[in-house]
Each structure stands twice: as C-alpha cells, then as structure tokens.
C-alpha cells in the first residue's frame, strides 16, 4: 500500500465512513474496507478525540511549539496591543519575547529569529 499523508479533514472523513460501516467488524476488516494501513488505522483511532476538537484545516500535521506557555502569553499580549491599535515592530516583539520567559519562570528558552517564524 502506498504511503500518503492525510490532512485532518481527510482523517475526519475516514472516521465518518467508519461510523457508517456495519457494527461487528474487526479493526483489521474496517481498515481494509476503508483502504487504510492497519497501523495507521490504529493511530487514527487513538487521535480521534484530538482530531474532533481541532479547527479543521488542510494541514497534514498538527505541530506544536516547544514553549506553549510562552507562545500563549505572547499571543495574548499581541492581541491586546492590536486591540488598542498600537503599532507592533519586530524589535518590540523580540524584546517582549525575551522578557516573557523570565516572568513565567522558564529558564531554558532563548528567543531567536527562527523561533518566531
């Protein structure tokens, strides 16, 4: 079977087809009917809860950052600045990003250009 990366939307469509299958099928039989590798099928079933809570996009993978608490705080700060219609600049963002880890007690974070983009 050829390898193919599916988007979140495609994975949800496969799960909907699974729900429409007659009850009593084994996982292997369901995977075969849906044209999915059995290992991939088991992984898809484990991801089901996460997939159903995602904002469905066409992205193939959900990637999370290495510092989610810093990202969340920075996002909140950016939202507040934008709601007040204050200008944002790269140096200001970098300054705030270097300041946030200290306030949040994160010791091993270093802001760099690659992290932001």
Structure description:
The protein is mainly alpha-helical and 117 residues long. The protein has 2 domains: 8-53; 68-116, Arc Repressor Mutant, subunit A. Helix content is 62%, strand content 0%. The protein has 6 helices and no strands. It has helices spanning 8-20, 27-34, 38-53, 68-83, 90-104, 113-116. Helix 1 packs across helix 3 (38-53) and helix 4 packs across helix 5. The longest helix is centred in the middle third of the chain and has 16 residues, at 38-53. It is elongated and about 55 Å long. The model has no long low-confidence stretch (mean pLDDT 82).
What's the helix and strand layout?
Layout: H1 8-20, H2 27-34, H3 38-53, H4 68-83, H5 90-104, H6 113-116
Helix pairs in contact: 1-3, 4-5
Q: Give the strand content.
A: under 5%
**SSE order, as H and E?**
HHHHHH
Give the helix/strand class: mainly alpha
Mean pLDDT: 82
The CATH topology of the largest domain turns out to be: Arc Repressor Mutant, subunit A
CATH superfamily of the largest domain: Homeodomain-like
Rg, Cα atoms, Å: 21 Å
Tell me what the CATH architecture of the largest domain is.
Orthogonal Bundle
Task: Put the structure in a nutshell.
With 117 residues, this protein is mainly α. The chain has 6 helices and no strands.
Task: Write out key terms for the chains shown.
single chain, 117 residues, mainly alpha, Arc Repressor Mutant, subunit A, 2 domains, 0% strand, elongated
């Amino acid at each position: 079977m050829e390898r193919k990366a599916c988007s979140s939307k495609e994975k949800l469509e496969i799960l909907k087809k699974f729900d429409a299958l007659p009850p009593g099928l084994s996982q292997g039989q369901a995977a075969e009917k849906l044209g999915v590798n059995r290992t991939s099928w088991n992984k898809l079933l484990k991801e089901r809860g996460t997939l159903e809570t995602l904002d469905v996009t066409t992205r193939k993978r959900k990637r999370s950052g290495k510092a989610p608490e810093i990202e969340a705080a920075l996002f909140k700060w950016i939202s507040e600045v934008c709601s007040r219609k204050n200008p944002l600049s790269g140096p200001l963002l970098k300054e705030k990003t270097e300041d946030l880890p200290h306030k949040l007690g994160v010791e091993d974070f270093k802001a760099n250009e690659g992290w932001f983009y």
